[in-house]
Amino acid sequence: MDGKQCCVKLSVHPSRGLVDEKFLILVQNVLPGFQLTVYAFYRCEDGHRWEAFAHYTANASGTVNVSEDHSLGGTYSGVEPMGLMWSQRPVPGSKPGLRMRKTNVQTPMEVTISVYRGHLTKGFADQVPLAGAVVERWYMAPGVRRVPVTEGGLTATLFLPSGPGPFPGLLDLWGGGGKLVEYRAALLASHGFASLALDYLTPQITKETGKMVDNHYFEAAYRFLEQHPQVLGSRIGILGLSFGTSIALKMAVYSQVFKLRCAVCISGSHVQPIEGSVQQIMTSFHNNVDKTRFNMEQQVIWRDLLLPIPADPSLKVEVGRLRCPLLLVVGEDDQNWPAHESAVDVKEMMQRAGNYHLLTVLSYPGAGHLIEPPFTPFARASSYKILGTAPQTLMVLWGGETVAHCRAQEDAWRKTLVFLRENLYGGTNPRATASSHL
Amino acid sequence: MSQTTPSSTMSPDVPPVLSVVPSRALVDEAFRVSVQNLPPGCAVTLHSLHRSEEEDLWEAFGHYVSDQNGSVSLADDFSFGGTYVGKEAMGLLWSMRPVPGSREGLRLRKMNVCTPQLVHISVYDGHAQEGFTERPPLASVLSERWFVAPGVRRVEVREKGVRGTLFIPPGPGPFPGVLDMWGGGGGLVEYRSALLASHGYVSLALQYLTSGELALADVESKFFETAFNIIRFHPLVRPDRIGIFGLCLGAIATNHLAAESSVIKPRCCVCVSGVHICPRGPPLAGTTQLLLLTAHKVRVDENNHEIWRNRILPITGDLAEKIDVGKINCPMLLVNGRDDQNLSTVEAAEDMARMMQAAGKAHLLTTIEYPATGHLIELPYSPHFRATKFMKMDTKEKVMLLWGGQTKPHSDAQEDAWNKILSFLHHHLYSNNPPRAKM
Question: What are phi and psi of B279, to 5 degrees?
């Protein structure tokens, strides 16, 4: 150990934060001009290992500030305060097609941040770092309650914000992969929305009967929220991604039970047989499976299945009948769904119908299909298990370029929260600006 | 005083949005508390509630009025009443006191430092002074206040007659070290060491008095040196970068070690609310003797709270009754309160400065004194206690001791002192510049 040089000091602030909060990483007490690598490591729940790293040079005070200094190379470059989170990728030698999704939202992600001497690109496990710190990233804020829901035949989890309530409610729908995915609903509850994560493709009732759910299932979910003592029944919204968009638009326009205050639709389309059941909508997509394409790496491109956007109104949700604000979030490099083209058509339909003032479109160049809460790793393609009688695993191309996609996630999430806050909390005080701390 | 009528009608429909950021923080980190979605010009009370490990309830509250956007921000707005007034971002923590009807003389100290302190922050309609548990708030969030950062390890130490707890920061090390010593209450208080480890120091919280005992006189000098060496020889510690941190009796022991020990060489010392007045020789034995000899000088105030500050007044001129601080060879930071009713630290510090000056060591000494600040200069944002129950070591009798200080200036002092202490420790234990005595 060099007698003159003392201990490198690494600090991460905050050391415990929500997944969508930024942190500040500071390296201090190195020599001016010292070359170092800041390294992030995360072992996820299923045992896969993820890493990110960046090369920095200390300034004249012997300090590196990740939020202000330029990364000269690594898994990201330039000034990227959260690059060590979103640029993480599986360590070399990992199984291909991995996607990081936390299943247990009651524990944090524990990420180790380390500082290494020099500009390294590999061999991190073989070297002793100069300093290390641990950061906790949480989906649930303290006081948020997680309530499994099985009543009414539902397979769902309700996340209630801290406090007595009552709170505005949100129905949270994921896409064609099915399962009960909780992390986004947990995070939304941490922002003040009573959020119900709903499994509608692989719920208990489908496992038992072999049949897909119908409209009654979604209406039961809506009623569950509406009648919940800690939910404001007149302030319920819906948020859907991918196939979840199809459900959201369908229920928003055609259901007599749903009285939505707003809808957020991410990476989806309004193209579907009008008033078709979930089964029928899925079938209509499968009927176009011959339009599947493959890229050079043999990854599956499904965006063409819904193209071209039909002119026939019976093949699309009549968005001209929407009575609540709609936020569409689309990635222009979405290789899985034609979200961008759909958004253009939605806009035209709503302009003709005269309800265009309800529409906001956030369209991001370079972003792909999986527009998720920010600061978790980006996957341009990943393994995807098709549900059905002959289950198969394919490598599906979602699209997107890392930096553009991650910037889109950060921007879209912030704007989504503002939209939800304004529509679900606002209205009684028109001048109350809901400024988020994000 | 009953609650006033709110100046503008609350909508029964939508609750306001209360946010506390960060919701999980270290105890010395500030948070931003804000409320949105209120009607404009609405009177509200921000309230904090904590249930201690002893099941006592502590609370603080402030009275606010929302602006034209329906927002309240504690960092920007004024509290017009409650347990604190003015623009006080952290008032909901430092102005906490036991709820009405609590036992007398309580002190808030967390013993299990591995779990966070849970504080409920709530917003109530109107300007209330009481009755917070009898009606639901408009909104409430839970704030976690942690002594340990993620990755900090806690290791119990039982070796060579030394008992204590070691806290080790995450990472490969090596780290600078701190020997951390509390005051005459005895027992083992870990929270300052836990927090020091969260700031990158291997810190040993030393148990040198079991509660009610003042033993160990005969093994004293070896005892402290052994404790210091446990840190020094720890594989994750830089042996040339160890400091000593003492409060009250721990500070007396610190002065003694810095002056007299030929075995250990601290790189710097922090003495909070301590003195150098102690008969030459082992400090604990000396202090026991001092307490016995000065018992007649104890006064009581109008509440029958004991004032001990006169015990060492006037400051003796007899060198045999004082630690020979002229022999100190490392930078010393003294932190004292001018309203210390327990120990005359300000007067003693002046005398200490004269002695060190005479020995040509003035450049090693930095003294900070805070106005209207008492004896218990604790971690930032922790509640102020003007007097609390204390068990006398010799008789095991419980008395109420007056520590002194007025809440607001004392709380400011705690916040400022901690920053200065961390800066001092960083400068002497982490920094690569040649050590300079004055900050």
Answer: -55, 140
